[in-house]
Amino acid sequence: xxxxxxxxxxxxxxxxxxxxxxxxxxxxxxxxxxxxxxxxxxxxxxxxxxxxxxxxxxxxxxxxxxxxxxxxxxxxxxxxxxxxxxxxxxxxxxxxxxxxxxxxxxxxxxxxxxxxxxxxxxxxxxxxxxxxxxxxxxxxxxxxxxxxxxxxxxxxxxxxxxxxxxxxxxxxxxxxxxxxxxxxxxxxxxxxxxxxxxxxxxxxxxxxxxxxxxxxxxxxxxxxxxxxxxxxxxxxxxxxxxxxxxxxxxxxxxxxxxx
Length: 259
Known about the structure:
Blueprint: E1 2-9, E2 20-29, H1 33-47, H2 59-64, H3 74-89, E3 96-104, H4 111-135, E4 142-147, H5 151-161, E5 178-180, H6 186-204, H7 210-213, E6 233-236, H8 246-258
Parallel strand pairs: 1-4, 3-6, 4-5
Antiparallel strand pairs: 1-2, 2-3
Helix pairs in contact: 1-3
């Protein structure tokens, strides 16, 4: 089984200071969860050798120097961020796969529509990956785990999606989504890092950390390819808007090639 841990970056309810909203995360094979958790624990031990209990790794807190990270310089905090993102990059396909969906302000009608569009898109991409695994003789079901702070919104959406999405039935995503606190699982903390990397890329054109993890974005093969679009990455944007992001650029290249 693959478990897709999801988190948000940006706020679907507020568009006064942001141009995008992100849902992203990591799909982890059940056999790799403990392995990855131990690797993140080692990052904590490297920088906080005297703290024995798990502390929460939150990308924004590290970047801004909040909580336990307040005593470190920006240079050290950047090293911590790079260490965590490097864990993602160093995982072998398909033990860990990155999925993300981003909606641009040009396609937002209201906060409910924004969250629904992005969540539906990422669920479809995860289901597509599971379907592909089945076709190559490696059948597996998927499960969603989401931060419990947003339980009500997501539970209602998944109930609707079980009846079918605009692209079909999510037959490979088993059961209902499960909700947990970010402090309870390192994997939700990892999802926070992924969502933050995509938000900084689409909101601030900062590709620092996206460049580290982009080989793990699902595209049907285990490495970066200029010939395929990212099957695990969606950018929901008005077609009239010109966009050269890493997924729109490849999609446009493929359209030109077909012509």
